[in-house]
Amino acid sequence: MTTTNQAATPLAVNAKTYLARLAVLLSALYCLTVWPNLASAEEAAGSWRGGWVERALFTSAIAEREPVDALKHLRGDADHVYFFTELRDMSGLTIAHRWEREGVVEAEVSFAVGGPRWRVWSRKGLDAEQEGRWRVSVVNQLTDETLMELFLDYGEE
Q: Where is the DUF2914 domain (predicted)?
């Protein structure tokens, strides 16, 4: 009986070493590029947890970065309305005003929060065909979490 020695050839050893080194290199590249971005996204998502919506309201106009009144109902002859929000301790996040009528999203306006106290507003043009119950949600765009929502009835009383 003859037995053969199945020793690895130098070419096979070099290929295995090459593949092992490539796997280590790709793992390191992943850790350097993807992992920091995941951590940043997690930090941004959690950073607002100390923050809050200080004020949110519908108004007919904005003067000197402040609402001039607070509306709960809007007559059908009005052609627009504003939604004002004051945010606290949400720097670095992107917040949106999501405008919905009768459960259908009509508009979404995004804002980058640039400071510890940040006042923003969005304006919605209206016409008589858009009468009904409007809801505006203040949304953290990173997590799609609703931070607050308010309702406005538009149309005849």
A: 94-141
Q: What's the pTM value of the predicted model, to 2 decimals?
A: 0.69
Secondary structure (H, E, C), 76-135:
CCCCEEEEEEEEECCCCCEEEEEEEECCEEEEEEEEECCCCEEEEEEEEECCHHHCEEEE
**Adjacency order of strands within the sheet including 52-59:** 52-59, 80-88, 117-125
State the DSSP H helix or E strand holding residue 68, giving kind and residue range, or none if neither.
Answer: none
Handedness of CA 61, 127, 107, 150 (dihedral sign): positive
pLDDT along the chain (157 residues), means of 10: 56 71 68 53 52 96 97 92 97 97 95 97 94 96 95 87
Contacts of 155 (CB under 8 A, 6+ apart): 74, 75, 76, 131, 132
For residues 156 and 47, what is the distance between their CA atoms, to the nearest angstrom?
A: 42
Residue 84 has phi, psi (to 5 degrees) of: -105, 140
Whole-number Å distance between alpha carbons of 55 and 66: 11
